[in-house]
Automatic annotation (TrEMBL):
UniProt-recorded Gene Ontology molecular function terms: gluconokinase activity
Annotated family: Belongs to the gluconokinase GntK/GntV family.
Provenance organism: Streptomyces caledonius
Pfam families reported in the protein's UniProt record: SKI
Keywords: ATP-binding, Kinase, Nucleotide-binding, Transferase
PANTHER family: GLUCONOKINASE-RELATED (PTHR43442:SF3)
EC number: 2.7.1.12
Lineage per the UniProt record: Bacteria, Bacillati, Actinomycetota, Actinomycetes, Kitasatosporales
Protein name as it appears in the record: Gluconokinase
InterPro entries from the UniProt entry: P-loop_NTPase, Shikimate/glucono_kinase, Therm_gnt_kin
The reaction(s) this protein catalyses: D-gluconate + ATP = 6-phospho-D-gluconate + ADP + H(+)
């Protein structure tokens, strides 16, 4: 299915680790026939090592990663191909950077209680983000605000239910 011409150019699936960003992002990208980017793939090696050692990133650590993501959003927007990106986007300033990078950026915030997020992260394998960093993500998280384009959904729902709800809510992507 092609993306409607006035649908959001780039959808950012945001939330803390363990909220299901990657799973939902892949499904939504397939539904909208858009390319998918896992933002973790753009983290510099030093960021991955720091998180793997149980130390949270600060804004200075995140800066090159955020710039890389903004560049991807700009390219996806300007090319007209659009895209879906799974990215924590924990702070409003990060989301503002993404909105300035491309027209039509829309956010899907996967909201999840901390105990469930911790349990999910603790049971996954092969990821550099340890469960002990979950608390720092919640401390940093600034939920999506009413003036930001997008919606917040309960990440405890099934991935398909989240995708269905988001697809119905996205401007003209019904």
């Amino acid at each position: 299915m092609d993306t409607p011409p006035d649908a959001p150019t780039v959808v950012v699936i945001m939330g803390v680790a363990g909220s299901g960003k990657s799973t939902v992002g892949v499904l939504l990208a397939q539904r909208l026939a858009l390319p998918f980017l896992e933002a973790d793939d753009l983290h510099p090696a030093a960021n991955r090592a720091k998180m793997a050692a149980g130390r949270p990133l600060d804004d200075e650590d995140r800066r090159p990663w955020l710039v890389s993501l903004a560049d991807w959003i700009r390219e996806a927007s300007e090319s007209g191909r659009g895209g879906v990106v799974a990215c924590s986007a924990l702070k409003r300033t990060y989301r503002d950077l993404f909105r300035r990078a491309g027209a039509g950026v829309w956010f899907l915030h996967l909201s999840l209680d901390q105990a469930t997020a911790h349990r999910r992260v603790a049971t996954r394998t092969g990821h550099f983000m340890p469960a002990r960093l979950e608390e720092s993500q919640y401390a940093t998280l600034e939920p999506l605000r009413p003036d930001e384009p997008g919606m917040t959904v309960d990440a405890a729902a099934t991935p398909q239910a989240i995708v269905d709800r988001a697809a119905r809510a996205m401007p003209t992507a019904r």
